[in-house]
Amino acid sequence: MSDCLFCKFVRKEIPTRVVFEDDSCLAFEDINPKAPVHVLVIPKKHVASINVMTMEDEAVLGHLAFAARQIALEKKIDQSGYRAVFNTGPDAGQSVFHIHLHLLGGRPLAWPPG
Ligand code: 5GP
Ligand code: ZN
């Protein structure tokens, strides 16, 4: 999508701090981290949110969890623990409408979230 910020990261039109990339996903440091580790993992395909995903997106979105595990290993938070979350819609505070998995860790995370 031409005017989507995260699509611009995928196309390398805007630089960002990439921590992982493969054929179907890109992961980069969140610009406003909420934890010592805060990485966003996105599909290279533009999908606005979970609300509009289709069955053909299932595999690539599942792959985001696989990539998150790899990043958690590299960031050494796999044993201490981490959270992987998709904010969806206004009540969850979704602000960027290109699906992104937040990978958060490196400190105890309260539950339930605020
Ligand atoms: P949401 O609120 O949609 O769940 O999460 C969007 C996330 O994108 C936020 O955590 C925000 O800090 C991050 N973000 C917004 N703009 C940028 C940017 O330009 N670069 C990076 N790396 N992260 C961004
Ligand atoms: Zn996009």
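^ guanosine-5'-monophosphate complex. Residues 5-105 form a domain with the HIT family, subunit A fold (CATH 3.30.428.10). The beta strands are 18-21, 25-29, 37-43, 82-85, 101-105.
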